[in-house]
């Protein structure tokens, strides 16, 4: 059965299942969501209005047995940034969508009344239902209830209270294999889903499977690919310490943004480090190694138990721990895990929300380090939609404007993540030029600047950084289209068998003959498509800039400032 | 001379997290790695005073020296 486009119109509650247009056929994941948004969404529309569309797409290899291919992409015009947006996550939904035969799910329009709805997909079938029971509930209650209604094998995509209230930091939750939650985190896509009055989407693929054009070639390529992933030492460290292994090294390099980006090192780094977290997890009978989707061979996720040995949270990432930890000067992993759980339940991006708290702390709304007050505000204010809750739930930029703060770490209104661009300059180029606001995953120069993977670059020097960010952003756009986890990039940068075997798998899946050049061109095309959307939405090169405070406030320990000129940054787009 | 040596991730196993060491003048970063029985092949990143360095870098009095295995995240 050929893959189809599943379309849902929430204005008149109509649905259709359509053939894939030829120009979309070679796309998947981010490439497809961005292509569809660029083709069908008016760039000047209000992100929460009827003309925005929310698009979900599995990657090109999702639903197959390819290792690490379980990422789902969602795209729309972002209510946080006003730019085009793609976010991707693990969990089970990419595999379910692909097996349903859904190349992309496009949700358009908006109900005219206050009713809430759910959508369920099966092979060849879309159902829209009214939803009352789960409105106002958090994501964990939604997953539990939807599993009871359908089965525990069902895929679930949902929003919490944050998305219902259309907060700009709201994320979309994806059920993982243990009925816990992964997040389409950045850019407020949960608010777009809330604006369309969809509480959840249930995915039932039954026994359906993805067709492979050349199964033998696919199997052989997957074997080579898997070996490259498993053998790379970074994969091995990720399985032991999780992404949080980065706290200590980024702190050591002086690039760990601390106390709302006023320092580059955090005194309490050891208490929140991956090493400490690993020991705590083992001591409490949790799992240091855990996959966010079936078929992951890296297993950077984990099961974090509380002090009594009961489950608390899963897949607690470096960026979340940094944001709630160093940026808010909280050195207690249990408090951070509690907040991670709460934000998963309410459905808010941990990076955006915690950076917003950091700015609120700067403003004196609460004290730096006061995790009890953070937890109170999350549960009593944000989840209930109080005025303060909405101020914070609409992101770091919103908090800064509300309280008159100038040290507001955002680009295109999206919070800057866990690497200070003054001390690690290449990542600053990525923050500035990314088509989606500040986002480390768009071009992860940290690999080269700090970790020595894929070559070396001096993090305190401007030399070669624009080119490094450009090459990584192009490669990332392509990887984000395959359904692959971005962490295959560590092996891809160092092991010459990794990328060719990935391309071989795509060719064997579809019976085509892509080359490495085609893949690079795909990455460039995606970036240019996204950039053109932003230009048409009113963005110019002057939006590709970091906040002024990075230029005028040196950060310890290197006393470094952001010293790129606008002209230097603008050379990014010379390709 | 005194140098503070810091170890990370699995390099800590059976060794230490942080130790002040009394070392002869001219000691290199690589010599300390060797003396700790750490395989150079397993070393990902070396830093002296928060700057990346190499096995050949000569350490000085008061330096803070950090040794990391090959790690990644993001």
From TrEMBL, chain A:
Residues 1-207 form the Aldehyde ferredoxin oxidoreductase N-terminal domain. It comes from the Bacteria. Gene3D superfamilies: Aldehyde Ferredoxin Oxidoreductase Protein, subunit A, domain 2 (1.10.569.10), Aldehyde Ferredoxin Oxidoreductase Protein, subunit A, domain 3 (1.10.599.10), Aldehyde ferredoxin oxidoreductase, N-terminal domain (3.60.9.10). Its cofactor is [4Fe-4S] cluster; tungstopterin. InterPro entries: Ald_Fedxn_OxRdtase_dom2 (IPR013984), Ald_Fedxn_OxRdtase_dom3 (IPR013985), Ald_Fedxn_OxRdtase_N (IPR013983), Ald_Fedxn_OxRdtase_N_sf (IPR036503), OxRdtase_Ald_Fedxn_C (IPR001203), Tungsten_al_ferr_oxy-like_C (IPR036021), W-dependent_AOR (IPR051919). Keywords: 4Fe-4S, Iron, Iron-sulfur, Metal-binding, Oxidoreductase. One of its GO terms (molecular function) is oxidoreductase activity, acting on the aldehyde or oxo group of donors, iron-sulfur protein as acceptor. PANTHER family: ALDEHYDE FERREDOXIN OXIDOREDUCTASE, TUNGSTEN-CONTAINING ALDEHYDE FERREDOXIN OXIDOREDUCTASE. Belongs to the AOR/FOR family. This is Aldehyde:ferredoxin oxidoreductase. It comes from Desulfocapsa sulfexigens (strain DSM 10523 / SB164P1).
UniProtKB/TrEMBL annotation, chain B:
It holds the Pfam family ThiS. It comes from the Bacteria. InterPro entries: Beta-grasp_dom_sf, Mopterin_synth/thiamin_S_b, ThiS/MoaD-like. This is Molybdopterin converting factor, small subunit. It comes from Desulfocapsa sulfexigens (strain DSM 10523 / SB164P1).
């Amino acid at each position: 059965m050929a893959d189809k486009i599943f379309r849902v119109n929430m204005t008149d509650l109509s649905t259709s299942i359509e053939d894939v247009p030829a120009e979309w056929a070679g796309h998947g994941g981010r490439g497809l969501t961005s292509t569809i948004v660029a083709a069908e969404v008016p760039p000047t529309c209000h992100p929460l209005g009827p003309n925005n569309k929310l698009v979900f797409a599995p990657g090109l290899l999702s639903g197959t047995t390819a290792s690490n291919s379980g990422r789902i992409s969602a795209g729309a015009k972002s209510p946080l940034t006003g730019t085009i947006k793609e976010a991707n996550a693990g969990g089970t939904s990419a595999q379910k969508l692909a097996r349903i035969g859904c190349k992309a799910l496009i949700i358009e329009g908006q109900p005219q009344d206050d009713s809430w709805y759910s959508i369920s997909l099966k092979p060849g079938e879309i159902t829209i239902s009214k939803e009352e029971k789960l409105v106002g509930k958090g994501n964990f209650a939604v997953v539990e209830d939807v599993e009871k209604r359908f089965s525990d094998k069902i895929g679930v995509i949902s929003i919490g209270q944050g998305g219902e209230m259309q907060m700009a930091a709201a994320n979309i939750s994806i059920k993982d294999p243990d009925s816990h939650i992964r997040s389409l985190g950045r850019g407020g896509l949960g608010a777009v889903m809330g604006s369309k009055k969809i509480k959840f989407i249930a995915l039932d693929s039954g026994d359906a499977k993805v067709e492979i054009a050349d199964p033998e070639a696919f199997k052989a390529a997957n074997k080579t690919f898997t070996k490259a992933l498993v053998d790379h030492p970074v994969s091995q460290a990720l399985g032991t310490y999780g992404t949080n292994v980065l706290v200590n090294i980024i702190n050591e390099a002086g690039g760990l943004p601390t106390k709302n980006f006023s320092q580059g090192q955090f005194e309490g780094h050891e208490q929140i480090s991956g090493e400490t977290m690993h020991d705590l997890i083992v001591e409490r009978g949790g799992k240091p190694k855990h996959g966010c989707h079936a078929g992951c061979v890296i297993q950077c996720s984990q099961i974090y138990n509380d002090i009594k040995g009961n489950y608390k949270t899963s897949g607690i990432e470096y960026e979340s721990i940094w944001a709630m930890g160093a940026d808010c000067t909280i050195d207690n992993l249990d408090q951070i895990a509690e907040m991670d759980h709460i934000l998963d339940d309410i459905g808010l991006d941990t990076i955006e929300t915690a950076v917003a708290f950091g700015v609120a702390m700067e403003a004196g709304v609460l004290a730096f380090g006061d995790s009890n007050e953070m937890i109170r505000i999350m549960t009593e204010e944000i989840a209930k939609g109080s005025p303060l809750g909405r101020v914070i739930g609409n992101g770091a930029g919103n908090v800064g404007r509300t309280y008159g703060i100038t040290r507001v770490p955002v680009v295109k209104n999206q919070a800057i993540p866990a690497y200070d661009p003054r001390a690690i300059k290449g990542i600053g180029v990525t923050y500035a030029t990314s088509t989606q606001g500040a986002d480390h995953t768009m071009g992860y120069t940290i690999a080269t600047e700090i970790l020595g993977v894929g070559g070396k670059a001096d993090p305190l020097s401007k030399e070669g950084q624009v080119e490094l960010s450009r090459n990584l952003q192009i490669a990332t756009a392509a990887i984000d289209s395959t359904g692959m986890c971005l962490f295959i990039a560590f092996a891809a940068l160092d092991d010459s068998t990794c990328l060719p075997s990935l391309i071989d798998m795509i060719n064997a899946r579809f019976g085509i003959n892509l080359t490495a050049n085609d893949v690079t061109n795909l990455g460039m095309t995606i970036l240019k498509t996204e950039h053109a959307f932003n230009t048409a939405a009113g963005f110019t090169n002057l939006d590709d800039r970091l906040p002024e405070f990075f230029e005028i406030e040196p950060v310890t320990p290197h006393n470094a400032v952001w010293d790129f000129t606008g002209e230097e940054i603008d050379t990014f787009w010379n390709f | 001379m005194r140098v503070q040596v810091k170890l990370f991730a699995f390099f800590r196993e059976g060794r230490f997290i942080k130790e002040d060491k009394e070392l002869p003048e001219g000691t290199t970063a690589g010599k300390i790695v060797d003396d700790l029985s750490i395989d150079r092949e397993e070393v990902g990143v070396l830093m002296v005073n928060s700057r990346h360095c190499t096995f050949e870098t000569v350490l000085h009095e008061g330096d803070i020296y950090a040794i990391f295995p090959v790690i990644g995240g993001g």
